Amino acid sequence: MKFLALLAAASIQQLASRQAKSLSSNFTWKSTGPLIGPKDDGRNLAGIKDPTIVEINGTYHVFSSTSQLAGYNMVYFSFTDFEKAGSAEFHYLDQSPIGTGYRAAPEVFFFEPHGLWYLIYQNGNAAYSTNKNISDPLGWTAPTNFYPNGRPAIISENIGAGYWVDMWVICDKTTCHLFSSDDNGQLYRSETPIGDFPKGMSEPVIALQGKKEDLFEAVCIHRITDDQYLLVIEAIGATGERYFRSFTSNRIAEGWKPLAATEENPFAGAANVEFEGTPWTKSISHGEIIRTHLDQTLTIDPCKLRFLYQGLDPALNSGEYNALPWRLALITQTNSAC
Ligand SMILES: *[C@@H]1O[C@H](CO)[C@@H](O)[C@H](O)[C@H]1NC(C)=O
Ligand SMILES: *[C@@H]1O[C@H](CO)[C@@H](O)[C@H](O)[C@H]1NC(C)=O
Ligand SMILES: *[C@@H]1O[C@H](CO)[C@@H](O)[C@H](O)[C@H]1NC(C)=O
């Protein structure tokens, strides 16, 4: 009897903690103003974009694209307080073995089996660099391509007038998955056994397909539990503003079902983000949920999500896309179920 009662108590507790830790089915957020932009340092950057972010013992480590008409590269900076993020020192990764030229849209994680940090990014292919020390911006290795034979055929067949962008790696216990987008309605997925990572990525398959505007780019996939994964992807709204849609599945490979996935009820967009005063941006564009769990499972706590994103002053939204003055800002979930 006592044993049974204990069991019942344990499972009630388990149920309660499971409920307390569940992902919301709809989201509301509040945003800061723009926090991080280019510095007056002679580089003449137009935008700071596409952030990936982890928090380690109270320090935030951010890798972002740098953009200007001439093209893209990446920057690293760290800070302990978002209010002072704008004054964090920039370390441009073109000074490291990553080198100059087209490199953009980074994702950072710690690959536990190798004891190394991986930076995943686009360079015309899907590339990675590794580093023992996330704080050492010069410690990254030169780019290695995931697809040694160049752009896979399935992408060339579907890309139309799009671009092959926004690579994202996430691993479960057995497999590492590499996602990418074609800015033309396809989300692709390759895989390799975790023991072979980073080598051996398979020919991609189409993981999600739809209208270009609905499945545009900037995918992020996170593990909530072994049975629940969250996928967010950037979409283009009715008047051209960017917002995020969300999907969930019980596995990474397939089975994605819409969660909050419309412009009216987005994961994050003008419809559900509150600003102080006049919104500084109408777009909630390329960004990432802050991770405190650092490994290749990209596990997040579904409570009180924080999302570092890029936004754009609507008054400055004209001219060449690469020269637009994107800035980074933070949204914090206000309707967390836990
Ligand atoms: C939002 O989700 C909560 C439960 O998570 C639900 O009670 C509420 O009705 C939802 N609101 C909308 C507008 O869908
Ligand atoms: C965080 O700090 C603790 C205590 O100083 C240390 O043991 C741990 O290794 C640190 N974690 C990381 C990921 O650096
Ligand atoms: C990591 O790199 C930073 C910056 O170069 C350096 O200050 C720190 O000592 C390094 N940590 C280790 C463990 O080497």
Properties at a glance:
globular, Tachylectin-2, Chain A, alpha-L-arabinofuranosidase activity, 4-stranded antiparallel beta sheet, secreted, 338 residues, 5-stranded mixed beta sheet, Alpha-L-arabinofuranosidase, mainly beta, binds 2-acetamido-2-deoxy-beta-D-glucopyranose, Glyco_hydro_beta-prop_sf
Describe the structure.
This protein is mostly beta strands and 338 residues long. It has one domain (2-332): Tachylectin-2, Chain A (5 Propeller). It contains two helices and 21 strands. The strands form five sheets. A five-stranded mixed beta sheet has the order 18-1-21-20-19, with no helix packed on it. A hairpin with a 4-residue loop joins strand 11 (175-181) and strand 12 (186-193). It is globular. It starts with a helix and ends in a 5-residue tail after the last strand. The structure holds 2-acetamido-2-deoxy-beta-D-glucopyranose (NAG) (3 copies). One 2-acetamido-2-deoxy-beta-D-glucopyranose is lined by residues 133, 135-136.
Quick overview:
With 338 residues, the protein is mostly beta strands. The chain is built from two helices and 21 strands. The chain is 7% helix and 39% strand.
The number of domains is: 1
Form type: globular
| Strands in their spatial order, largest beta sheet | 18-1-21-20-19
Give the end-to-end Cα distance, rounded to a whole number of Å.
Answer: 33 Å
> Quick one: how many beta strands?
21
Low-confidence stretches: 1-7
Evaluate the radius of gyration: 20 Å
CATH architecture heading: 5 Propeller
Number of helices: 2
Q: In what range is the share of β-strand residues?
A: 35-45%
The helix/strand order is: HEEEEEEEEEHEEEEEEEEEEEE
**What percentage of residues falls in helices of 4 or more residues?**
under 10%
Mean pLDDT level: 95
CATH superfamily: Glycosyl hydrolase domain, family 43
CATH class: Mainly Beta
| Derived structural class | mainly beta
> What hetero molecules are bound to the protein chains?
2-acetamido-2-deoxy-beta-D-glucopyranose
- CATH topological fold name: Tachylectin-2, Chain A
The main sheet comes to: 5 strands, mixed
